[in-house]
Fold each of these.
Amino acid sequence: MASFADLLKAKGFAASPESETVEVPVPVAAEELSFAAKVVVRYTKKGRGGKAVTLVQGVESGADGLLAKLKKELGVGARRDDDELVIQGNQVERVARWLESQGVKKVVRS
């Protein structure tokens, strides 16, 4: 029976010469979140075929990671549209409270 190191070598992974451990690349750190001076959370139906959505404006960087966490934590459908986050339904209060719990200093509801 082949050792674990032999199996890894057969698959193309190289073990370090000092030991029988495999060098694994360190994942790239997630993009840091940064917000504008204020984050605006608003409800609208305009231009969406009568469907209600909640818009979040003021996320400067890390919007994709924030969106994934928001979707998972609140159990809502959402997407990114240019510089704003579009969340399905009237979720203004829930999203505003969640953003405040994530450390956003000023959240404006409109």
Note: The chain has three helices and five strands.
Amino acid sequence: MDRIDYEILGQLQNNARLSNKQLAAAVGLAPSSCLERVRRLERDQVLRGAHATVDPGAVGIGLQAMIQVRLEQHSRREVEGFRNHVLALPATLAFFHLAGAFDFLVHVAVADADALRDLALDAFTTRKEVAQIQTSLIFETQRNPVFPVYA
């Protein structure tokens, strides 16, 4: 990876809809060279896709929360089993395996408070490996769309 590769990443993070011609002009390359670099970044899995931002309310999401989870035990089997279970839940937006007081942080999105209660009771507290959960409601979400890129 060189300076131009990092510049390509920065440009695409700011606007993934740039045409190859626009991207090439922005980073000072010929379109063919730029396309070759983008394809290499995709092949090497540096670029892992482009994403659309969806308005949660427009798709029936009225409530988001962070659920902290502490496991009873920390065997590889239990950790992997819980991870696979959580990632299969339609409400899961993001999943973090942590060090500290809690083992996992799960970002969930649901229709309302009743759906959050049901999710906590049915998908978390019924799991034998779960010792404790703590739920925090999210009032506002702002994301930085640009991942820091260090050259």
Note: The chain has a mean pLDDT of 94.
